[in-house]
Amino acid sequence: MKLRNFEQLLPWLIVALAFFLRIWRAESLFPFTMDEEYQAFLAKNIIEGKHFPLIGVNVADTGLYLGPFFTYFSVIPYLLFGPSPIGGALFSALFGGLTVYFLIKTGETINKPVGLLAGLLSSVSFLSNAYDRKFWNPSLVPLLTILLMLALLKVKNNPRWWLVIFLVFGLAFHTHYSLFALLPVAIYFLWKNKIKLGNPWFKGGLLIFFFCLLPLIVFDLRHNFTNARALGKIVSKPEIGRASYEAVPKTELFLNTLSRAIYVPGPHDLAREIVSCATLKRSLPYYPLGLILILGLFFLSLSTKGFKEKALLQLLLGSFLSFTIFLLIYPRVWAEYYFLPLLPLSFLVLAWIFEKLMVKMSFYPRMIIAAGLLGLMIYNTISVVWMTNSFGLDVKRQLIGWSAKQIGDDQYSLDSVGSCYKFEGYRYLFTAFFKPPITSYVDPYFSWLYPDIKNTNFSSQRNVVIWNSLNDTGVKEDKEWNQWLTMAAKKRIIANFGAMKVLIKQ
Predict the structure, then answer these.
(1) Which of 112, 285, 386, 453 is deepest in the core (most CB within 10 A)?
(2) What is the DSSP string of 264-315?
């Protein structure tokens, strides 16, 4: 193969690697929690013609609701793959592959080595791979972030990119509000670089933005301004409804996330690494790695001269600064996935730093850095290949299949006991792979999504109770489980499925 042909093929090989690593053992690693369960019920109702919503999911218990576009989109994998949620894993992997592709294109605005290296770092990053396996609204955040960066870099010479800029901020209402931390960056960049507004593409972008807002506007008009009133409460009393699922201080979490983007020490159980829970600790990162990114930005600011380099540097510096400011002024507790916009940007910074160092150094130091970089990418690749998930979809299917054999034609109620892992999507999964229970532990949250479920054709009732633990449960959960064991002391069946136990009271 000619060198030129290989150079043209190399970006696609990196994208293929990213996609492969994200579909590797898809069913055994796919997380299906309460977030995915909510989305699955909404998609199911749309497919069955029961309900077509004008809003999406609730935003972190704030009373605000996202727009419905991701919910509409989530219908597609369920149409293609039936009630099984495995289609979501494949679509999430596709988002990850597209993110790597546009990351390469963004880095290539500096030079090809920066783009290719950024794409490689993102492809094999454990943390990036882990979040690219979830199918929920934030799944699109890294892709939208890098599209925004590319659009801002190109809009001056090609005003068609106005459509992408407005589309990104329009879809922010449907994916995750963390994208709005990039809005001040975009406004400053457009003003600083004197980007013209008066053209048809700018007006077309405004129409796209309005179209994205339209479902939320209609919903508020029909429901007594639910979102507007919730926003007013947040502004006037920002501590109301404060989340408590992260015990780590925000500034520490910020450095943790940047460090974990580069390297996550093993062993790696996906159930531990991406869950937000105050009683569970993730793998501890090496803090200097996050500081490398911060200090590297200052290094780049001192060594950057060209117009294209300065433009990208403005965006990178502005993005990290904007997130730091929002981190300090936002009163509620943060979760790690709020930093998803910074993941692709971190790989750009890291790739750019390495490229600068390699150019400036002599042969032997350059080889040492290259060897360290290669070792990092090999280790990350091995980490991704050997990751596990104690609550993967395949184990849950085994649990449900065993339960179905014990229950037979009887009707049953469903309960779940645990701390960090109580809400693992069991209500939807039992419905998809067996049959719906007459009552369940998530009915207080989701019963409005299945009000017509009636199981009157079965002769007797059984209690199915699932115990969920990775040594994270406390006295309350242990007591609840022991109460179930005592209640079912005489007639019970128990089976173990790794971190899950299932008890069926006859």
Answers:
(1) 285
(2) --S--BHHHHS---TT---PPP-HHHHHHHHHHHHHHHHH--SHHHHHHHHH
Q: What is the pLDDT of residues 391-445, one digit of tens each?
A: 999 999 999 999 999 999 889 999 999 988 999 999 999 999 999 999 999 999 8
Letter string b/e over residues 354-389, b meaning 16 or more CB atoms within 10 A of that residue's CB: bbbbbeeeeeeeeeeeeeebeebbebbbebbeebeb
Under a CB-based contact definition with an 8 Å cutoff, are residues 32 and 425 in contact?
Answer: yes
Q: How far is CA 337 from CA 29, 274, 301, 361, in A?
A: 18, 8, 27, 36
pLDDT digits (tens, 9 = 90+) for 192-229: 988 888 889 999 999 999 999 999 999 888 878 777 78
- Judgement on whether residues 121 and 254 belong to the same structural domain of the protein: yes
Which of 339, 369, 385 is the C-terminal boundary of a domain?
Answer: 385
Residue 193's identity, in one-letter code, is N
- Report yes or no: 354 and 377 within 8 Å, Cβ to Cβ: no
Please check whether residues 453 and 373 belong to one and the same domain. Answer: no
Q: Of 385, 402, 432, at which residue does a domain stop? A: 385
342 shares its domain with 432: no
241 and 354 fall within a common domain: yes
Same domain, 200 and 246: yes
Q: What is d(CA 316, CA 180) in angstroms, rounded to the nearest whole number?
A: 15
**Domain of 166, in residue numbers:** 3-385
> pLDDT confidence of 243, banded at 50, 70, 90?
very low
160-171 pLDDT, tens per residue? Answer: 999 999 999 999
How many structural domains are present in the chain?
A: 2
Cα separation, 142 vs 122, whole angstroms: 11
Q: How many CB atoms lie within 10 A of CB 268?
A: 21
Residues 6 or more apart whose CB falls under 8 angstroms from that of 261 comprise 125, 127, 128, 342, 343, 346, 347
Q: Are residues 343 and 458 in the same domain?
A: no
Mean pLDDT (the chain, rounded): 89
Three-state SS string over 372-419 comes to HHHHHHHHHHHHHHCCECCCEHHHHHHHHHHHHHHHCCCEEEEEEEEC
d(CA 310, CA 294): 17
Three-state DSSP state, 194 = coil
Q: Are strands 492-497 and 439-440 parallel, antiparallel or unpaired?
A: unpaired
Sheet with 500-505: list strands edge to edge.
Answer: 439-440, 411-418, 461-468, 500-505, 492-497
Is the pLDDT reported for residue 307 higher than 90? no
* 151 and 232 inside one domain: yes
